[in-house]
Each structure stands twice: as C-alpha cells, then as structure tokens.
C-alpha cells in the first residue's frame, strides 16, 4: 500500500510517501516540508499547501492519504491554521478519488513508539529506525509526516477488519430483527384468526 502522510500546518506542512511491504515492513519513498511565510495572505498560504498536495498526489499516486487529526491545541490560531491546511489537502485527495484517513497524534505516537505520549525526539528516533534511514528526517514536521504514513500502514488492516466485523454484525442484527418482526406478525395474525 502506498500512503501519503501529512502533518498539516501553514508555516510548515510535512508531506511524506511510504510503501508497505510484508508484515510491518515500510519503505520511505519521498519526504518534504512545504513552507509558507507567516506574513503571506492566508488564502495564498492555503493555495500553496493545496498546490503542493496536488503535485504530490499527481506525481506519486498514493492509494490513501493519512492526515493528522486536529482535536485541540493550546493556541486557537495555530489549531485553525492546522485544520485549514488539513482541509485543503483532504479536498485535493477527494478531487482525485483518493481516500483520506485521519489519525490523532496519540494514535500515531503509540503506533510508532509504543507510547501515546512520546515526545518529538522519540518519534523522530523511531521513524529513523523503522525506515532504516541514515539520518533523522528534519525538521520534525518531516518525521511526523513519515510517522503518520507508517501509522496508517500498520493500522489500516486492523481498521478494515473492524469495519468488516461491524458491517457483518449490523447485517446479522438487521436479519434477526426482520425475522423477529415476521414472527410477531405471524403471532398477531394467528391470534386475530382465533
């Protein structure tokens, strides 16, 4: 599976591409950080991030895009910019028919380091080790984008199995309720004819 991982942001947006192999084997194919100046107009910054995402998807043809889910940050303005950047990337993926999956920072940290509260240095060290890189990816946004892609590669099979199990359970429940309703109708009909 070819996964494009995205650590969204307006000032620095990490984008990476990894490919999964057998078991937990993953290979880094490309990584970069899109930068936009803080004094640039917001619409132009978002357009730069969007253009970069479009270019990456057109060149690398990922099967899925994994984006960090923004759920809370201390600075509201930072969270807004991060969410906006993630939104334009999700839009670019949707326009190309590429599925988008969101992972929380703690899910990514737990998948890569085994600790959902790991710091950036630990994530970077494990990404470097998992991918067998000679040097640690810099800046941290690049390592985070790689970590997101790795996380999705490792979690996707489990997520798919769970979705199939939930769908099968929902189908079984629907069939059970239909049978129960039919039995009740039969009983009412029988009681009415007596």
Automatic annotation (TrEMBL):
Protein name: Crossover junction endodeoxyribonuclease RuvC
Reactions performed catalytically: Endonucleolytic cleavage at a junction such as a reciprocal single-stranded crossover between two homologous DNA duplexes (Holliday junction)
Residues that bind Mg(2+) 2: 68
Subunit structure and binding partners: Homodimer which binds Holliday junction (HJ) DNA. The HJ becomes 2-fold symmetrical on binding to RuvC with unstacked arms; it has a different conformation from HJ DNA in complex with RuvA. In the full resolvosome a probable DNA-RuvA(4)-RuvB(12)-RuvC(2) complex forms which resolves the HJ.
Function: The RuvA-RuvB-RuvC complex processes Holliday junction (HJ) DNA during genetic recombination and DNA repair. Endonuclease that resolves HJ intermediates. Cleaves cruciform DNA by making single-stranded nicks across the HJ at symmetrical positions within the homologous arms, yielding a 5'-phosphate and a 3'-hydroxyl group; requires a central core of homology in the junction. The consensus cleavage sequence is 5'-(A/T)TT(C/G)-3'. Cleavage occurs on the 3'-side of the TT dinucleotide at the point of strand exchange.
Amino acids binding Mg(2+) 1: 7, 141
Active site (catalytic residues): 7, 68, 141
Domain of life: Bacteria
Matches recorded under SUPFAM superfamilies: Ribonuclease H-like
HAMAP family with a match to the protein in the record: RuvC
Cofactors demanded by this protein: Mg(2+)
E.C. number(s) listed in UniProt: 3.1.21.10
A Pfam cross-reference name: RuvC
Keyword set, alphabetical order: Cytoplasm, DNA damage, DNA recombination, DNA repair, DNA-binding, Endonuclease, Hydrolase, Magnesium, Metal-binding, Nuclease
Family matches, as InterPro entries: RNaseH-like_sf, RNaseH_sf, X-over_junc_endoDNase_Mg_BS, X-over_junc_endoDNase_RuvC
Organism field: Rhodococcus gannanensis
Cofactor note as given: Binds 2 Mg(2+) ion per subunit.
Family per record: Belongs to the RuvC family.
Record's subcellular location: Cytoplasm
Enzyme kind, highest EC tier: hydrolase
